[in-house]
Amino acid sequence: MDHFSPRDLEYVIRVDEVVWGGALLAVTIVIHGVGMLLTLRATNAIKDRATEPRSRYPAVAMGILILAAWMIILTNLFEVMVWAGFFVWKEAQPNIFSAFYNALLNYTTLAAGYLPLRWRLLEGMLGMGGLITFAWSTSVLFTLAQEFMELALLPAAQRRERVRSSVAAAAHDRSGESG
Questions:
Q1: Is 4 inside any structural domain?
Q2: What is the largest CA-CA distance in the chain?
Q3: CB neighbours of 61 closer than 8 A, spacing ≥ 6?
Q4: Residue 104 belongs to what H/E stretch?
Q5: Number of domains present in the structure of the chain
Q6: Which domain holds residue 101?
């Protein structure tokens, strides 16, 4: 038993810690879902208007992917801010700046051990949230990148026709929703 620290022996998982962690994970997933939906809607709206000639299409596609990446990063940073706000509210961190920094490190699974013993479990739960949302974000970027690569390799006439048909389908869907 000499390889355990006294701190390890004092720690007991509490029900309120599990409940708060579960609630924070749920909020994280909701925020991420909304963020990914907004990312896909924004990129699709831009893509639907992108009927550039084949020579400029790769630049437009890359711009859309960069926009999507920025939106995903902002979504993730907002999620980290929620956790950091909780840590400051519960006096588990001295200020929002150190709370944000430490939460970001745990969200990316780079560090642990900064919360008081009372909130120790949340470090792992925050890392789990980060893993889940990074996987989701990756799938969104992969989907966009794959779609753009397929379109970029099509001859210009086929690409314009595919874009026109997707715009027409979207317009049809919208008219069906309002009626």
A1: no
A2: 73
A3: 50, 148, 151, 152
A4: helix 96-107
A5: 1
A6: 11-178
